[in-house]
């Protein structure tokens, strides 16, 4: 999703006499874009709300789901007030745009280079930003102080996400004309995986018994949340061309082919090594497939998507199931849901493979210029491997930039917040969980975790019972 056109002065809305639509508006593109954006939004709410609330211990279900819900709302306000223009507006530095209000009077005018209103663009980019922050939260579940999280979300959006998005996607970004990142393998997934891991280091681990025994409280609901995530990715990758065109169709097909391959490879490895097919493992394999195909969804052939799925189902499996257990670094940092493996590792893998498999004619259809690629594989076939190696070098540079920036920015944010409030919950709250933090529990079962006084205060006796008395 590299954007090569700059913002221009809004066009006057020249209404047609028959249906009050401006002459530039393509209704099919607009309808698809609004649909795709809604699908991406549903990946977060309810998708990740359900997934997080189900994938943790019962005592953390409310807190985990609420972290996702809060982030979605907070990012939206920050996005329209200043962060959208920092990510896609007028250049302030090579790394970031000038802050500004996005909902200006030209919000209904044509957005540069597309046949949809600017409102479509602002909202679509918001749901991308929101899901990035929510994915990051997966590393912090089960111990982060919610007040610290409330501060962390707007600060990280402003100082980290906006920088990555502007540098790689905005027309004035210093890496925009070099990096192939169709829909966010670097900007979204690598940044969330690295930032989540670094934030988990600063927040500290869960209690030892929670870290050693942390079963999902509802696997069926977990699969429901995962389903929202998988199917919502149709809009994630299919909406990135901002048109109902051939690239959108190819991106959707590649997305699901890669994801299915990755899931099956992950499950197969679980069965070979552990002699059991893990449902949680299947979800992890699904996520790594979705992440891996994202930077190349509309610019690689379907056969390449299958190979990318095989890679994303095996390499992150190895880092999570083998390397994680042997590495002192991974053991010392408590990444609750393994976001580093599912997003950082799979995001880097997808970005590099996109630089390898990107096809020239698909790149031209997507970007309408010759700034990118083709991938190393096609350059070898064309007898010009140097050009392909140059593109791979840019892909590595993009990954390194995102990694370094997120390590620095996330660390500074966590250190700053720790001077205001504790990053980690109090030990007594960690013992109790949701009831201590929010005064609520996920499942209202008679006498389960409820204090008698609280129960009596809220009980309501049906009127029919009172009459019988």
Automatic annotation (TrEMBL):
SUPFAM superfamilies registered for this protein in UniProt: Ammonium transporter
Location in or out of the cell: Cell membrane
Gene Ontology terms for molecular function: ammonium channel activity
Primary localization class, coarse: membrane
GO cellular component: plasma membrane
Membrane-related topology note: Multi-pass membrane protein
Residue intervals passing through the bilayer: 31-53, 60-82, 121-141, 148-170, 182-204, 216-235, 247-267, 279-297, 303-324, 336-358, 394-417
Keywords assigned by UniProt, alphabetized: Ammonia transport, Membrane, Transmembrane, Transmembrane helix, Transport
Entry-linked InterPro entries: Ammonium/urea_transptr (IPR029020), Ammonium_transpt (IPR001905), Ammonium_transpt_CS (IPR018047), NH4_transpt_AmtB-like_dom (IPR024041), RhesusRHD (IPR002229)
Signal peptide boundaries: none
Domain Ammonium transporter AmtB-like, residue spans: 31-443
Entry similarity comment: Belongs to the ammonia transporter channel (TC 1.A.11.2) family.
Protein name: Ammonium transporter
Provenance organism: Rosa chinensis (China rose)
């Amino acid at each position: 999703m590299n954007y090569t056109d700059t913002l221009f002065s809004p066009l006057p809305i020249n209404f047609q006499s028959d249906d009050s639509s401006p002459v530039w508006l393509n209704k099919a593109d607009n309808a698809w874009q609004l649909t795709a954006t809604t699908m991406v939004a549903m990946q977060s709410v309810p998708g990740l709300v359900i997934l997080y609330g189900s994938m943790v211990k019962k005592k953390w279900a409310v807190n985990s789901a609420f972290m996702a819900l809060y982030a979605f709302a907070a990012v939206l306000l920050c996005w329209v007030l200043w962060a959208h223009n920092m990510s896609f507006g007028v250049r302030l530095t090579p790394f970031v745009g000038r802050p500004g209000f996005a909902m200006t009077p030209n919000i209904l005018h044509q957005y540069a280079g597309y046949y949809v209103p600017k409102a479509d663009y602002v909202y679509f980019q918001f749901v991308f930003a929101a899901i990035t922050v929510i994915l990051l939260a997966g590393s912090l579940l089960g111990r982060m102080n919610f007040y610290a999280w409330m501060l962390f979300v707007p600060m990280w959006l402003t100082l980290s996400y906006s920088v990555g998005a502007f540098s790689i996607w905005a027309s004035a970004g210093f890496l925009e004309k070099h990096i192939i990142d169709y829909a966010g393998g670097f900007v979204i997934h690598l940044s969330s995986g690295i930032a989540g891991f670094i934030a988990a280091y600063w927040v500290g681990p869960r209690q030892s018994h929670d870290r050693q025994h942390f079963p999902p409280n509802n696997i069926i609901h977990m699969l429901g949340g995962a389903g929202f995530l998988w199917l919502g990715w149709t809009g994630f990758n299919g909406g990135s061309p901002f048109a109902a065109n051939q690239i959108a169709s190819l991106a959707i097909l590649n997305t699901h082919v890669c994801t299915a391959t990755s899931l099956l490879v992950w499950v197969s490895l679980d069965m070979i090594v552990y002699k059991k097919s893990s449902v949680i493992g299947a979800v992890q394999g699904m996520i790594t497939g979705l992440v891996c195909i994202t930077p190349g969804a509309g610019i690689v052939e379907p056969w390449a998507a299958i190979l990318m799925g095989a890679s994303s189902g095996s390499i992150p499996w190895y880092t999570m199931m083998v390397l994680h257990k042997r590495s002192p670094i991974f053991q010392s940092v408590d990444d609750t849901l393994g976001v580093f493996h599912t997003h950082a590792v799979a995001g880097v893998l997808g970005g590099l493979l996109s630089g390898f498999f990107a096809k020239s004619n698909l790149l031209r259809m997507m970007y309408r210029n010759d700034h990118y690629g083709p991938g190393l594989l096609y350059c070898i076939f064309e007898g010009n491997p140097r050009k392909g190696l140059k593109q791979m070098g840019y892909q590595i540079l993009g990954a390194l930039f995102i990694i370094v920036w997120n390590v620095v920015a996330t660390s500074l944010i966590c250190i700053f917040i720790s001077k205001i409030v504790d990053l980690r919950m109090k030990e007594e709250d960690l013992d109790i969980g949701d009831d201590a933090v929010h005064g609520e529990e996920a499942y209202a079962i008679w006498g389960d975790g409820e204090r008698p006084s609280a129960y009596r205060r809220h009980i309501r006796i049906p009127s029919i019972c009172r009459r019988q008395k």
